[in-house]
Specification:
With 259 residues, the protein is of the alpha/beta class. 32% of the residues lie in helices and 20% in strands. It has helices at 20-31, 82-94, 109-118, 137-146, 180-194, 198-201, 204-207, 211-214, 220-223, 225-231; strands at residues 4-8, 37-46, 50-53, 99-102, 126-131, 155-161, 239-247, 251-258. The strands form 2 sheets. Strands 5-2-6-1-8-7 form a 6-stranded mixed β-sheet, with helices on both faces. It has a two-stranded parallel ribbon with strand order 3-4. Helix 2 links the parallel strand 3 and strand 4 (99-102). Belongs to the DODA-type extradiol aromatic ring-opening dioxygenase family. Its cofactor is Zn(2+). Keywords: Dioxygenase, Metal-binding, Oxidoreductase, Zinc.
Length: 259
């Protein structure tokens, strides 16, 4: 059975960089058993009702501005899979989760940057999923949990976001120093994830030190994919931190494996 993953997508520049984190993701893709399909929740696709993609072939969305022109030439032409989309629809229906079908939207950088580093050939079918920061963590977890049976069918579930993601607090000098409040927040998070302490994790905004900096109101959508990924491994409830590094002082590059 495949695990589920929370993977930080960091800056769009990861798509053209060679560093510790990009090398880790390259290796992760090579070492994982090849999945039949990939279900990916992206922080950059928000909706009030759960969206499930049903796309023949994805376009590539450049949902950012002011970066290296090379980024805007990258294509990730992954195909969809109608059978897997239907299975997702059936699972959401069985669990009483409202949803809508999206037939046109391409892959945003929260999806394609991560997928391209893992599987550069774009030869594995993808089903893109939205996130909703207005739901409670319990509701976000339930959506992931409803899809957990897919893992036994060699379908990889990924949630793409960032646990500490405050663009207003970044150190653009990027001198290698880790901002103390970000490290304290990430250490708290790691402790409670390893314990699968849902009671505390669901109240992260009031219990975690420096949560107001790591997950500001305008950055919640990057943190919440964590709950979708955890829910997808509710049957095992085991968390493992595979990688953690920092960029610009407080932007966390973390990869959590669940299950």
């Amino acid at each position: 059975m495949l695990p589920s993953f929370f993977i930080a997508h960091g800056s769009p520049l990861l798509a053209i960089e060679n560093n510790e984190y990009t090398h880790f993701l390259n290796d992760l893709g090579r070492n994982l058993p090849r999945p039949k399909a990939i279900v990916i929740f992206s922080a950059h696709w928000e909706s009030q009702v759960q969206q499930v993609s049903e796309v023949e072939q994805y376009s590539t969305i450049y949902d950012f501005g002011g970066f290296d022109p090379a980024l805007y030439t990258i294509q990730y032409p992954a195909k969809g899979n109608h059978d897997v989309s239907k299975e997702i629809k059936d699972l959401l229906t069985a669990n009483g989760i409202p949803f809508s079908i999206e037939k046109k939207r391409g892959l945003d950088h929260g999806s394609w940057v991560v997928l391209r580093l893992l599987y550069p050939n774009a030869d594995i079918p993808v089903i893109a999923m939205s996130v909703n920061s207005n739901l409670t963590p319990q509701e976000q977890y339930k959506i992931g949990k409803s899809l957990s049976v897919l893992r036994a069918k060699d379908i990889l579930i990924i949630a793409s976001g960032g646990t500490s993601h405050n663009l207003m607090a970044l150190n653009w000098a990027d001198n290698g120093e880790i901002t103390p409040w970000a490290l304290e927040f990430e250490d708290w998070l790691a402790h409670h994830l390893h314990q699968w302490d849902l009671d505390s994790l669901f109240k992260y905004d009031s219990l975690a030190p420096n949560a107001q900096y790591a997950v500001p109101p305008h950055g919640k959508e990057h943190f919440i994919p964590l709950f979708y990924a955890m829910g997808a491994a509710d049957d095992v409830q085991k968390a493992k931190l595979l990688h953690r590094s920092f960029r610009y002082g407080s932007l966390t590059h973390s990869v959590w494996q669940f299950g």
